[in-house]
Amino acid sequence: MKVSKIIPLLFMLLFGGKVLSQQKATVEKSIFGIQAGFLGFWINNESSLSSNLSLKSELGLDAGLFGGNSNDKMGSVVVPVLTLEPRYYYNIQKRAVNNKVTANNSANFIALNLKYQSDVFVISNSNVDVISTFSIIPKWGIRRNLGNNFHYETGFGVGYRHFLEKINSEKGEVTVDLHLRIGYNF
Fold first, then answer.
1. Shortest CA distance to 35 belongs to which of 136, 151, 143?
2. CA 122 – CA 78 distance, rounded (Å)
């Protein structure tokens, strides 16, 4: 074999793997799925806005527990919720470079959770008044795959919840969002 053929062959063998591993990882174009957590059930779609940015929209049922000193009964309540959440997946490229799974947006993210919780209907084991709210919560979270179609997601954030009706002269309060969900992608 001539030297002129050996040099390009050696170059491809030595540096070919690096070229293939540096392909740009991006968020999925569109993911439709369902999720269930400790306090609710949701149907969602996550659509790509750019290589690292997506918009997650979801419709679901948020659940809550109540009771305490002023109320002798413990109870539960379920209300409808509509959420929009822009997400920035800040380490999706790093995961791809390290040969970790990035399918179905399996990466860490920061997000701005915009949530409208409605009082259109209420499911409860007690007679309870629910007031519609709107909340804005900056969050940090992770999403990882469990096989091909299943995934889990966890996140945490602190933000502000605004009551759409006045409660005891208050119009809003600080709120915490902590979620742990398992889901299925279609």
1. 151
2. 6
pTM of the model: 0.80
Phi/psi region, residue 81 (left: phi>0; alpha: psi -120 to 50; beta: rest), is beta
Encoded amino acid at 26, one letter: T
φ and ψ of 104, to 5 deg:
55, 35
Instruction: Tell me the one-letter amino acid at 48.
Output: S
State how far the Cα of 87 lies from the Cα of 110, in Å rounded to an integer: 6
Q: How far is CA 111 from CA 12, 20, 90, in A?
A: 41, 30, 10
What's the per-residue H, E or C state across 37-89? ECCEEEEEEEEECCCCEEEEEEEEEEEEEEEECCEEEEEEEEEEEEEEEEEEC
* pLDDT tens-digit readout, 18-49: 444 456 788 999 999 999 998 899 999 999 99
